[in-house]
Structures are given as structure tokens and as C-alpha cells.
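Q: Please design a sequence for this.
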């Protein structure tokens, strides 16, 4: 079967990043595209527009919020509403795996800096978090193969990801 892969839309070349740019990724658009149909998502552009202020994760009394880097405007609820609609939609469509954009406070898989409300970074590796969208995706589908585009440069991680995705796709066929 053709694989169904959810992809951060900017990795496909869509100009939806905060600065109006994209993050086109060769592995996704050349190698993976031979085997996969893509289910694109972008948790920020439909909510905040493009171009837009950069946002970051902020720990407010133990709860992770998303705030504008400069204005500190809290945009968590809009992004959560997007996630609440899009994550179930991807799962209903029978997604086999996801490739997410690294270093994004909404799409990143890991190592996303969490700041204090005062604006300082906690400064410690164990205070790094996940992007809000990817956290929700993994919460609703803990077995789903999810990787960042940068980690797929590593041959072993790429092979492992593809094996998991093919296995899921085969089960979907039954
Ligand atoms: Fe790319 Fe995700 Fe940022 Fe949208 S929110 S531009 S898909 S990294």
C-alpha cells in the first residue's frame, strides 16, 4: 500500500513559517514521496497568520503555555483548538507515521526550550519540552512512529522509522 505520512507542512516546501519561509526537506519530498501520500498540518499559520511573531513554551505555575516571544501574548488556546481538530482527523485518515519539524514550539518532537514567565530559559536540559501539537499527537497515538526531519538524516533512525511505518501500513490493510 501507499504510506500515509503526516508532515509539518513547511517541510513540504509550503511557505508557512513565522517569517514566510519554508523548510523544504529533500528526504521527504524526493525519497519518501515515492512511497507516501502526505497529510500536511501546520498548527501555527491557520491560527496566527503568516508572517507572525515567533512563539515559545513558557512554564506558568507548572502548566506549559505558548506565548509570543516579544509581546508575550498567550496563544495556547487557539493552538489547542487546532490540535483538538487536526489530531483526530489525522488518526481517522489512518496515518501510518509522522515527520515533524525540529526546534518548533508546536511541531518539535523533543529538546524544545521551556522559559520562565520572566523570559529566562530554565537553562537545563531536563527542562526541555515537546511541541504542543506533537505532544498531543503522541498522547492520542502513543504507538505511532514520529520523527523529526533532522533525525531522519541518521541511517539507523531512518531505517527504524520506515520499518515501523511499513508495519503500521500493513496492519491497516487487514
Ligand atoms: Fe512548520 Fe510546524 Fe512551524 Fe507550521 S508550525 S511552520 S508546520 S514548524
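A: Design:
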Amino acid at each position: 500500500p501507499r504510506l500515509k505520512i503526516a508532515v509539518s507542512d513547511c517541510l513540504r516546501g509550503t511557505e508557512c513559517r513565522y517569517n514566510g519561509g519554508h523548510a523544504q526537506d529533500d528526504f521527504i519530498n524526493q525519497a519518501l514521496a515515492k512511497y507516501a501520500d502526505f497529510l500536511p498540518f501546520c498548527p501555527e499559520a491557520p491560527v496566527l497568520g503568516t508572517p507572525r511573531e515567533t512563539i515559545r513554551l513558557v512554564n506558568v505555575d507548572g502548566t506549559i503555555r505558548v506565548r509570543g516571544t516579544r509581546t508575550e501574548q498567550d496563544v495556547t488556546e487557539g493552538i489547542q483548538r487546532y490540535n483538538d481538530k487536526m489530531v483526530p482527523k489525522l488518526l481517522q485518515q489512518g496515518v501510518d507515521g509522522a515527520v515533524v519539524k525540529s526546534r518548533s514550539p508546536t511541531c518539535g518532537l523533543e529538546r524544545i526550550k521551556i522559559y520562565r514567565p520572566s523570559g529566562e530559559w530554565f537553562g537545563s536540559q531536563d527542562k526541555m519540552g515537546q511541541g504542543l501539537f506533537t505532544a498531543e499527537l503522541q498522547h492520542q497515538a502513543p504507538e505511532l512512529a514520529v520523527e523529526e526531519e533532522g533525525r531522519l538524516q541518521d541511517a539507523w533512525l531512518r531505517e527504524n522509522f520506515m520499518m515501523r511505518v511499513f508495519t503500521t501500513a500493513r496492519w491497516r490493510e487487514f
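Q: Thanks. Anything notable?
A: The longest strand covers residues 3-8. The chain is about 30% helix and 20% strand.
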